[in-house]
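Residues determine shape. Next comes a sample protein:
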Amino acid sequence: LREKINLDDENNFREFCWRQLWDKYAAGEISRENCAKQIKEMLEETIEWEELLQDGEKYFSEYEFRYLCGYLIVAERDAEYDSLFHMVESYCVKMFGGCEELSYAPLLGMMLMRVQNEYGNCGEVDISNKYCREIIRIAKYSKDMAKIEEALYSAWWNKRESTKTADEEMLSWLIDLAYMIEEFAGEEFMRSKMEEI
């Protein structure tokens, strides 16, 4: 990839660094703490950390959305994490009301999914489910079937955890839906390649 893309282009370079970092983390070449540190450094190249945590109007570029979500996945749960998490939650709540007008509705859905997961993991299923419904609304607008399936699965998991019962038929249906989405995504990719040829 390094030889095939123009790394002098800032967006290409950021994308390359981002993918390289996640590949290293997934391969176990860097620790979770080191990954969080590097994501924080990437964020601070565009936004001062103190400014990021302050209240007020904010705009995030596509890569900043990904940096924030990635950081929330790998960062240690401490006071700094809590401040960032609540800023992200507050941002999502402010923005999702008018997300139909935003070209980055899928990115907002990705960020909100991170918030929803955190509440689900903490056992706050009512809040988590509320955000699942909002994610589905956003995903309908952007026609993101994968995000709808992910939110439905999260709601299913929340019910399973809170009631200690599981609707196996629903899970089976969600698995079938996930396979269908995966197959369709592959088909779309092949169609686009055929159009290029």
